[in-house]
Design a protein that fits this description.
Structural class: mainly alpha
Number of helices: 20
Helix content: 55-70%
Radius of gyration: 24 Å
Length: about 500
C-alpha cells in the first residue's frame, strides 16, 4: 500500500499502478510448474489483484461518507473500543496522535471529493445523508462524554510523569483543536452544500456506470458469476423455503435476562467444545472471551458478534453479546448466534486460518466475503449434528438467521437492480422478518449504503451446502464429515470458485 491519503488522486493512482505491477509479476510466473499449495496461492493472489484493478474503474472515492461504514464511524469506534484498538504505552498514544492528523486530512479530502462528485453526477442518496448528519453532530460536540476523549480518560497508570502530562496535553489539544473541528466542518458541508444536491434515488444503478458498478460489487461480495436478477430469484425461493419451514415450528420463549444470558453463553461454549469433535478434527489454539457489549441493539442487529484480536492472536478474541437489547427475540436465536459468531463459525474459521504460520501473510490474515460470511451462516446450520438444537425453539432460531440473509438477497438486488423504492424494500423487510418500521428502515438503508455487501452470507452458505451435498454423493461410504470440514477450512478464506475447484480435486483423490 503506497503512503498517503487513501482518498487522494495521487494515492489512488499509485495504488492502481502497484496492483498492475503485482498482477504483471504474478502472470510472469508459469502456473503449470507450481505444486498444489503454490498454485492455490497463485490463484488467490491473481484473483485479488484482478478484482482490485477492476474496482478502480468505479469512483467510490467520490462517495466516501455513509452512516454505516467509512472513516468517520470507523475512527469513532476505534476511540471507543479499547479492546480492539488498545492504547497501552506512550508509543500507542503517539501513533493515535498521528492517526488524528490522518483523519483530519481524510476529512478535507472527502469534502473535496464530494464536491467533485456533485460536478460529475455522483452523489449519495438523501436518506443516507439525513442519517449521517446527527451522527456527525454528536461526534463534533466538545463534551466530556464525546467518544474521542475516551483514550484520554483510559490512559493506563503504567504511563508515568512527565510523559503522562505531555501526552494528556497533546491529546486533549489534538481532539479539541483538530479532530472535533474536522467533524464539525464535514457536518456543515453536508448540511449546507451537499444535502441540497443529494439524489432522491437510492439505487447504485442510478449513477453513471451504475449497473456495471453494482454487477462488480455483486461479483466481489457473492463470489458467484451470477447476475443480480439471478440472485434475486435465488433469494425469493430461499425466503419461501425458509418461511415454510418456520411455519411448522412454534415461536419460542423470549431471551433470558442479562445475567442469565451471559451465563447461558458460557455454558454453551463448554457444550459446543465438547460436541465439536463429532464434526471437526482440528481445534484452534486461540481462545475467546464472552463479554456484554454494553450497547443496545436493534431487532435487525445480530444478538452477538465476534471481534478478532488486534494483534493476530496473542490475546483472546471477544464474543460481544447484546445483553441490553430492547428487541424481544426467541431464546433459540442465542444458540444459532453463538455457533455463527464463535464456534464452529467466525472465530473458529479465522483462528484456524491465522494459526497457519506457513501461509503467506495475505492469505493468513486475508478475507473473502462469501467464504467468511457464508461459513458463519453454514456453521449455524450444524446445531442439529452437534446435538445443540434440542427442540423446535432452537431450530427456529437458526432459521431466523438464514431468513435474514435470504431477505438480503431479495432486497439488495431489488433496490439496486430492479428499481425498488426505499418504501417498497422496507415493507418487504417488515413483512418477512416481522420487525418494526424503524428497524426495517435501518436495514433498508444499510442495503442502500453498502450495495452488494449483504449478499455474501447467503450466497456463501449456499455454496458450502452445495459442496457438502456433492461430496456426500461423490464419496458415498468414503465420505467423512470431519475430513470434509478440515479440507474446506485448512487453506483459509478464498474465492468460492477456487474453493470449488480445490474440493473437486480433493474428492477425486478420495474416490
Amino acid at each position: 500500500m503506497p503512503p498517503g491519503n487513501p482518498l487522494s488522486p495521487q494515492f489512488l493512482a499509485d495504488s492502481l499502478s502497484l496492483e498492475r505491477r503485482f498482477l504483471a509479476e504474478v502472470l510472469a510466473v508459469p502456473r503449470a510448474g507450481l505444486d498444489a499449495d503454490a498454485g492455490l496461492t497463485y490463484d488467490i493472489f491473481k484473483r485479488r489483484r484482478e478484482l482490485d484493478i477492476e474496482g478502480f474503474t468505479y469512483p467510490a472515492e467520490l462517495l466516501p461518507v455513509d452512516p454505516f461504514d467509512g472513516m468517520p464511524l470507523q475512527f469513532a469506534r476505534a476511540a471507543l473500543d479499547t479492546q480492539q484498538h488498545p492504547l497501552r504505552a506512550a508509543r500507542d498514544y503517539e501513533h493515535w496522535l498521528l492517526r488524528i492528523d490522518d483523519n483530519v486530512r481524510w476529512t478535507r479530502q472527502a469534502i473535496a471529493n464530494m464536491r467533485e462528485g456533485m460536478r460529475r453526477g455522483y452523489t449519495s442518496p438523501r436518506a443516507l445523508m439525513e442519517r449521517m448528519l446527527p451522527l456527525l453532530r454528536g461526534f463534533g460536540e466538545d463534551t466530556s462524554g464525546n467518544v474521542f476523549y475516551v483514550p484520554l480518560r483510559t490512559m493506563p497508570e503504567s504511563i508515568k510523569e512527565p510523559e503522562r502530562t505531555r501526552l494528556t496535553s497533546s491529546l486533549g489539544s489534538a481532539v479539541k483543536d483538530k479532530l472535533l473541528p474536522a467533524y464539525r466542518e464535514l457536518h456543515a458541508f453536508i448540511q449546507r452544500e451537499y444535502l441540497p444536491r443529494t439524489r432522491i434515488s437510492v439505487a447504485l444503478s442510478a449513477l453513471p456506470l451504475g449497473p456495471s458498478w453494482y454487477a462488480f460489487r455483486v461479483k466481489r461480495a457473492s463470489g458467484a458469476q451470477l447476475s443480480p436478477n439471478q440472485i434475486h430469484g435465488i433469494g425469493t425461493a430461499e425466503v419461501e423455503r425458509i418461511r415454510t419451514r418456520m411455519l411448522s415450528l412454534p415461536v419460542g420463549a423470549p431471551l433470558p435476562p442479562k445475567a442469565e444470558l451471559l451465563n447461558a453463553y458460557q455454558e454453551l461454549k463448554v457444550q459446543t467444545l465438547a460436541a465439536l469433535p463429532a464434526l471437526f478434527s482440528a481445534a484452534p489454539r486461540a481462545d475467546f472471551e464472552i463479554r456484554a457489549s454494553g450497547l443496545a441493539s436493534e431487532a435487525a442487529a445480530p444478538l452477538a458478534y465476534q471481534a478478532a484480536p488486534p494483534d493476530g492472536g496473542s490475546s483472546p478474541a471477544v464474543l460481544y453479546v447484546h445483553v441490553e437489547s430492547n428487541a424481544v427475540r426467541p431464546a433459540g436465536v442465542a444458540i444459532a448466534a453463538f455457533l455463527q459468531e464463535a464456534i464452529p463459525g467466525r472465530h473458529y474459521q479465522s483462528a484456524l486460518q491465522q494459526e497457519r504460520v506457513d501461509l503467506p501473510k495475505f492469505r493468513r490474515f486475508g478475507s473473502e466475503p462469501a467464504f467468511v460470511e457464508g461459513w458463519a451462516l453454514y456453521a449455524a446450520s450444524l446445531g442439529d449434528e452437534l446435538g445443540l438444537y434440542r427442540d423446535d425453539e432452537a431450530k427456529r432460531g437458526a432459521l431466523v438467521g438464514q431468513l435474514k440473509c435470504a431477505v438480503a438477497l431479495v432486497v439488495d438486488t431489488g433496490l439496486h437492480a430492479q428499481d425498488w423504492t426505499r418504501a417498497q424494500a422496507a415493507d418487504y423487510v417488515r413483512a418477512q422478518l416481522g420487525v418494526d418500521a424503524s428497524d426495517a428502515g435501518l436495514m433498508t438503508d444499510r442495503f442502500v449504503a453498502l450495495p452488494g455487501d449483504a449478499l455474501a452470507c447467503k450466497m456463501g452458505e449456499l455454496k458450502f451446502q452445495a459442496l457438502l451435498t456433492h461430496a456426500r454423493q461423490a464419496l458415498g461410504a468414503r465420505f467423512d464429515i470431519r475430513e470434509f470440514h478440515a479440507e474446506i477450512l485448512k487453506d483459509g478464506a478464498m474465492p468460492m470458485d477456487i474453493l470449488e475447484a480445490k474440493m473437486k480435486l480433493w474428492m477425486e483423490a478420495r474416490r
